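Thread: "does anyone have the structure for this chain?"

Original post by V.I.:
We have the sequence but no experimental structure in hand. Need at least a predicted one for the grant figures.
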Amino acid sequence: MSDTPKTHGGKRPGAGRKKGSGLYNEPTKVVRLPESQVPVIKEWLKARAKSPTHAPELPLPKANNAETLRPDASSHVDLPLFSHKVVAGFPSPADDNIEARLDLNEHYIRNPETTFLVKVQGDSMKKSGIHHGDILVVDRSINPVDGKIVIAAIDSELTVKRLSVKSTGTWLVPENDDYTPILVKEESNLVIWGVVTTVMHSF
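Reply from O.Q.:
Generated one for you, tokens below.
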């Protein structure tokens, strides 16, 4: 066997770009995007690299069956956070029991530039505590891995389901026995718009 280092063909030790040394200074991964959104995402990444705290807002997902909203992170509404746990009795509202002030924007919207809101239609996720009329906080910066509840656009319609990646394929799984899981077929036009982080439910 020759001791001469390879100069062409095959993988050479030390060859290629070092991980984390590219444009974004961190490891990257391959994703599937709608062709129409590729230039939008590229421009957003460029702007974010120049000014991480003032990146432009990403466009909201559009679908005929869902209403999406952009959260207003510019306002602050501080509410008292009591140190007492919620009990069956009547809690004392005395100031001595106030542990801190809580801003709901800071608490629920971790990444304002990648977060949007969407209203729920239907009851396919009721076992997970997501009901018709609820408002979901969705973060597009979170990796949609197996087990996460995601907002997905499949064949141009938005849906909220639990993502399941198994040996049998990729599934969008409802949490209501009246609905059947959706197998994402190779020919399906699927886009994962983000991961649900919070459910806002009114009684």
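V.I.: this helps a lot. The mean pLDDT is 79.
O.Q.: and The longest strand covers residues 190-200.
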